Amino acid sequence: xxxxxxxxxxxxGCSMSELQSTQLPISLVRPPGYKRKAGxxxxxxxxxxxxxxxxxxxxIRPLYAPLSLLKRSGLGPLPRCNQILSGIRSYKGQGxxxxxxxSNDIPYLINxxxxxxxxxxxxxxxxxxxxxxxxxxxxxxxxxxSPVGGIVHDPCGGRGTTAIQSALMGRIAYSTDxxxxxxxxxxxxxxxxxxxxxRAKLKTLDLQLKPIxxxxxxxxxxxxxxxxxxxxxxxxAQFAPVDDAHPDPIWDWIRMAILFRLxxxxxxxxxxxxxxxxxxxxxxxxxxxRNERSGLTAPERDLDEIIIARSKGFLRHGCVPNTHGxxxxxxxxxxxxxxxxxxxxxxxTSPPFADVVDYAKDNWVRAWFAGVSLEDVGFSxxxxxxxxxxxxxxxxxxxxxxxxxxGYIAIEVGEIRGGQVELERFVWDAAEGLPCKxxxxxxxxxxxxxxxxxxxxxxxxxxxxxxRIVILQRS
Length: 475
Ligand SMILES: C[S@@+](CC[C@H](N)C(=O)[O-])C[C@H]1O[C@@H](n2cnc3c(N)ncnc32)[C@H](O)[C@@H]1O
Prior knowledge:
Elements: E1 8-11, E2 47-48, E3 54-55, E4 65-66, H1 79-89, E5 99-103, E6 106-111, H2 135-145, E7 151-154, H3 161-168, E8 172-177, H4 180-186, H5 195-204, H6 223-239, H7 249-259, H8 284-294, H9 303-314, E9 326-330, E10 344-349, H10 359-362, H11 364-370, H12 385-402, E11 403-413, E12 415-416, E13 421-422, H13 423-430, E14 436-444, H14 450-454, E15 467-474
Parallel strand pairs: 1-9, 6-14, 7-8, 7-10, 8-9, 10-11
Antiparallel strand pairs: 2-3, 4-5, 5-6, 11-15, 12-13, 14-15
Helix pairs in contact: 2-3, 5-9, 7-9, 12-13
The structure holds S-adenosylmethionine (SAM).
Residues 129, 131-133, 155-156, 158-159, 161, 177-179, 182, 332-333, 350, 352, 359, 378-380 line the site of S-adenosylmethionine (SAM).
C-alpha cells in the first residue's frame, strides 16, 4: 500500500464485485404494546353534523407520534449505545429539549443538534460542494460514535467533510468516492500546510501564458483570468498529474483551492457571477444566455490572489493535526476491498439522494480544470426508490463488513420531492435482515437562515430541508 509522508494513502478505483446477499435475523427496536392515551394532544375533537349528531372523523396520523423512546423497548441497545442515546435525549445544545417519538415503528430523536450550515464549523471545512453536509453534523456523529484514535470511513466522501472533521478530532480518516474530484478536494486538506508554503510556491511559479485554447470557457471567465487558468492547468498536469498518488502537497493544495473557487456568485470566485456555489453549474449555452440577459462582462480576477485568499480562509484556524494513517480511494461505495474486515469504528456517510443531484453535470467546470472526465464515472443516480434502496443496501453490506462488531454506521439522508419522501425510511428498510441493529433516526430540526438559502438549502420544493441520520450498530 502506498504511504504518503504526510500519512495519506490513495487507492485507485475498485471494480464492482459481486454482492453476496447476507440474510441474518435482526432485532427490531420497537416499543412493545404501545397504546395511544385518550385525550392526548393529537386527539381529534368530536365533530357534529347539521342535525347535531356526532360524525366520524378520520384521524390523520401525525408524522411523529409522541412516545418515550427506547425505555419502553424490551430490545434496548447495547450499554454504550444506551449512554450515547441518553446523551442525545438529554441534549439541550441550542436550548430546546430533544423530542423522542416513534413513527412507523422507527424511533426518532429530534432537536436542533447542530447548525445546518457551515457556521460554527472549522474554516477548513468551508468549501462548496453540492449536497455536502456541514462539519457540525460530522462533528456531532464523530464525537459520539467513534473513539479518539479510531477509524472513521465515509464511502461517499464528497468534498471530504467527514474525513477532515475526523482528522481535526484526532481520528483516522478513510474516504471513498466515485468522483475523482473528491480525492483532489480532500487529500490536500488532510496534510499540514501554511499559507507561507503556498505563497512561496506561487512566487517561484512562472506561469507560461499562451493564446486561449478553450474559447467556450470565456462565458465564465475574463480572457486574462482564463489564460492564467489554462497556464495553471498545464503546470498542474506537469507537476501534480492526476494519476500521481504522491503529488507535491503544495501543488495539490493549489489545485484544491482553485477547484473551490472556479465558479460562484461573488468576487471571491474566478468566474463572473454564475450561480450559487452549491447549486448546479450552468452549461455553456445556459451561461451564454444568462450573460446576454444580464449584459455584464466577466470581471478580471487574479489567480494568485484568489488562491491566497482561499487558502487564508481555509487556514484561518490552522490546518489539521499532522497525523498519519489517513486513506483515500476513488471507487464505488460498495466496493472497498482496501479496508480490512472489522477495522472501522464508524462509517458516516451521505449517499446521493435518489436523483436529486447530477454530480457529473454539477462538477463539469471543475472536471475541465482538473483534466478529468466525469462522463464514464458511474455516479449512482436513481429515479426509482426501489433501485435507490437496493443501492443503499449494497453500501450497507460493505460497511457492515468493514465496521467492527459493536461499531456504528450513520447514514445521513433528507426528505426529497417536496418533502413527500423521507429517505430515512428507505434506509431503515434497506438494513432489514443485515447483521446490524437499527437504533434510531436522529433528526436535526433546521431553522432556515439567510445563509442557509445562500448555500443552496431551500425550504421547499427542491433538494432537502433536514438532516436525518439513520444510526445502525454492527452486531
Ligand atoms: C450527498 S454527496 C456526499 C457529500 C459529502 N457528505 C460532503 O459533505 O461533501 C454524495 C456523494 O456520493 C458520491 N457518489 C455517487 N455515486 C457513488 C458511488 N456509486 N460510490 C461512491 N460514491 C458515489 C458523489 O460523487 C457525491 O460526492
